[in-house]
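ZP: hey, is the pyridoxal-5'-phosphate complex queued? I don't see it on the tracker
AM: it wasn't, my bad. submitting now with these inputs:
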Amino acid sequence: MFETLPTPKLDGIIGLMQAFAADTRTDKIDLGVGVYRDAEGRTPVMRAVKQAEARILDTQDSKSYLSLAGDAAFLTEMETLLLGGAVPSARVAAVGTPGGTSAVRQICELIAKVRPGATVWVSAQTWPNHGPLIAAAGLTARPYRYLDAEAGALDRAGMMTDLAQAQAGEVVLLHGCCHNPTGVDLSAQDWAEVAALLERSGATPFVDMAYQGFGEGLDADAGGLRHLAARLPEVLIAASCSKNFGLYRDRVGIAMAVVPDAQRDAMAATLAGLNRQSFAFPPDHGGRVVSTILGDPMLRAVWLEELDGMRARVQENRRALANALREATGSDRMGAVAAQQGMFSILPLTEAQVTKLREDHGIYMLWDGRVNMAGMDPSRAGDVARAVAGVLRG
Ligand code: PLP
Ligand code: TYF
């Protein structure tokens, strides 16, 4: 029956991971896939995670099924981490999902249930998985302007003009913080302006939060989301614990909807039903690690200290690369890299220049010039900057 099955093109980021692994050059540098790396280039299991896992190993007496929504303690702790009490719990419905990817997909399926084919506005540059996940649920992605490439900053006027066209029954996808791929985030004032636009139009915000804690800090990074939740009747949320708990392959995420009290129970049952039709019970182990850490003051302190260290390292790498680029190019054209947030920035390179960096210098980045700031040790910033300056000169 599969004689005519075509070979689909898979995720380009994963292709790049495989190419990097196969590259035998010892001085190669991986600025591709978005995983955190320490000074030795490792993606370690966080200390608090190891301790929580040891505790779970000792005390867990059953692995029997729980509910379709997953572990209640995980859902409650995540609600507090994300929303910080901005709305009463009586307005919040949530389910665990296998990673943030699945949370995005489940929210898209939720939208499709009430508005088949609905428009989802996405920033013109966005995570390469957003388009396929939106399309898989039969929804229609429509871009809004986002990055002012020249300034390395928000195209505020372009964004607000485009979002003013979003209507009730349409959805606006926003990155909660640490925008992937640009590193350009909204200020508190920008969030307030977006909230005012959505309040006027009745369009529904959908916040994808994959890097809480990597920008300015746990609460500051959720400030925009909390503002929307406090002000608007409906907010959709997909969050990932892959980066801030380092739980990537354990697949820990949450799909959440903030709705008026009267719709909360229907929403909770609908989200649970969506889980049932795709995988039934969400994976439990990683979520239990998260709730064990967040629910214990000692483990929480250990986790926060390590997360603060990860954020500081990414910021240090940003400054190191911005300085090295200034030195190597003799210009401040890429100076904005220092001020951007989270793991990613876009360097102003063509796809041919990106290919040359990979082939001639063993420096791997995404086809659109996206670099993962955590992929590099500051001691290699000079090598990266000189190679980038070289390909820019042609
Ligand atoms: N959303 C964005 C913007 C991301 O960058 C990622 C990747 O980490 C995710 C969602 C989901 O990641 P995961 O499925 O690994 O939790
Ligand atoms: O953008 C990234 O690199 C991360 C990791 O299908 C990732 O978000 C990449 C591809 C993918 C899922 C996660």
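AM: back. The chain has two domains: 12-44+313-393, 49-297.
ZP: great, adding it to the tracker
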